[in-house]
Design a protein that fits this description.
- With 157 residues, the protein is an alpha+beta fold.
- It is 23% helix and 48% strand.
- It is built from 4 helices and 10 strands, in the order H-E-H-H-E-E-E-E-E-E-E-E-E-H.
- It has a 10-stranded antiparallel sheet with strand order 4-3-2-1-10-9-8-7-6-5.
- Helix 2 packs antiparallel against helix 3.
- Belongs to the calycin superfamily. Fatty-acid binding protein (FABP) family.
Length: 157
């Protein structure tokens, strides 16, 4: 039998389109990150859709909401430097996969030195995103979208 790598398992679980179901303490986490009040209010109001894809070693997370769109491109284990966030912060981040198959991100704000940890994984067909910054924890949950499959099918015709 062929052993499947953790990266492939994570990919199979995470790839697709996900719609935000619930957000806990997200505003407080964003505040600790240094996100301005206006941007935090917008983030709280919008219903976010994440589209996660992978081609070869390159991962892409496309976050789309009513007020903001952001695209993150990275390779596992390689630092991504000087990335501008939706609210204009410049950060350096590194993505890894842990022993349990969770996608992990460590991010540092280059101007303030504030660090954030994020983990993403799928449990019972729900994408769970946990963030921690300066002792504040946040959790967001997403449901798999079936619209993504319909879009792919409609593009064939």
């Amino acid at each position: 039998t062929r052993k499947v790598s953790r990266s492939n398992t994570v990919q199979n679980d995470l790839i697709g389109e996900w719609n935000l179901l619930h957000s806990e303490n997200f505003d407080k986490c964003l505040e600790k990150l240094g996100v301005e009040t206006t941007h935090r209010e917008i983030a709280h109001l919008q219903s976010t859709t994440l589209t996660i894809s992978q081609q070869d070693n390159q991962w892409t997370i496309f976050a789309e909401g009513a007020y903001a769109i952001h695209k993150t491109i990275f390779e596992i284990g390689k630092p991504t430097q000087s990335v501008r966030t939706v609210d204009g912060r410049i950060v350096t981040s590194t993505w890894t996969i842990d022993r349990n198959g969770k996608l992990l991100k460590r991010e540092k704000n280059e101007a303030t030195g504030v660090e954030m940890e994020c983990e993403m994984y799928v449990k019972n067909e729900i994408l769970i995103q946990k963030m921690k910054c300066s002792g504040v924890k946040s959790r967001r949950t997403y449901a798999k979208s079936h619209v993504c499959t319909l879009r792919r099918l409609s593009s064939v015709f």
